[in-house]
Fold:
Amino acid sequence: MGLIEDLKDPLAFPEDTKSVSFVQTHISMVFMCDRYVYKIKKPVNFGFLDFTTIEKRKYFCEKEVELNRRLAEDVYIGVVPVVFDGKRHWIGKKEGKIVDYAVKMKRIPEERIMKNIFKRGDLKKEHLRKIAYTLARFHLNAKTSPEILRYGDPDVFRINTDENFEQVEKYVGISIEKDKFEKLRKWTDSFYKKREIFEKRIEQERIRDCHGDLHMEHVCISDKISVIDCIEFNDRFRYGDTICDIAFLLMDLEYHGGKVYSEKLWDYYREFAKEEDKEVEEILRFYKVYRAFVRGKVNSFQMDDEKISAQEKEEARKRAKAYFDLAYSYIS
Structure:
C-alpha cells in the first residue's frame, strides 16, 4: 500500500483516533483525525511553488507553522516526521526512514468555520465586526519594510497578473470563455496606468506581510477569531496591499451569494483599518478581480490532477467558470 492508504488507518497516528478522513488539494494531502489534522505537501512544482524535494517540504512546513501562528497561535502545533519502517508509513514514529514531513494542527470543528456558519444562515453582524477588527488590527501591525513595500509597485504586482493570464490561457474555451478572458486581460492591463493609486498606497505603508489566502474556509469563529492556512510557499503572494488581502474574503462572500454581508464587512473593516481615501474603492475592485481570477485558475489546475475522478474534475471546471464569471462581473 502507498502513503495515502497507510495514513487512512487510525493506527498510523500517535494519538488515539476512531477515524481518519482524507481530502486533497492541488498542493496538499490532508488527514483529519478526531482531534488533530496532519497536512503533507505534495511533491509538485507549479512555478509559483516548488515542493519537489523533502528538504523544501520540511522548510515550508516549518514556515507554515511560524507564519500561521500570527493569526491562529493555538491551532498550529508543529512539524512532525512521516516515517516508513520498511512495511508501511506512520506519523511521528521513531523507528524507520523519514520520507516526508507533516504540519500538525488542532482540528477545528466544522461548525465553527465561517463558510459553514454563513451557509446555515447564522452569520451575524457581530461576527462580521469581530472579523473586521481582527483583520484590521493584523494588517495595521503586520511587518513592512522597503523590500515588502516594493510589492505594491504596479510593475512588480503585474508579474502576478501576467502569470495568471499566461497560466489560464490553456483553459480558454474550457473553464473561461475567450471573450471574457480577453476583456479581463485588457481591463487589468489598463488599470496599471493608474500608477498614482498604487504609489499612494506605498507612501501610506499599506503594503504588508499579509495572509495571502483569506477566504471563508480559513476563518474560524468562536470566542475569538482564528485565521488559518496563510500562504507560506511564495512571499510575493503574501506580501502586498492589505486591501488585496481583505478583497479575497469580500469576493468569497460574494461568490457564495453574500453580497450584503460583504458590504457590511467592508464598512467595518474600513472603519477599523482607517481606510478613508476615496480611491480605495477603485483598488478594491481591481483586487477583487484579481482574487476571483486566481480562484478560477486554481480550480482549473485541479482538472489536470490525475489523482481525482472525472466527476471531481468536472466540478472543479464548474467552480472555475463561476469564479471567472464573477471576476468578469466586476468589470462589466
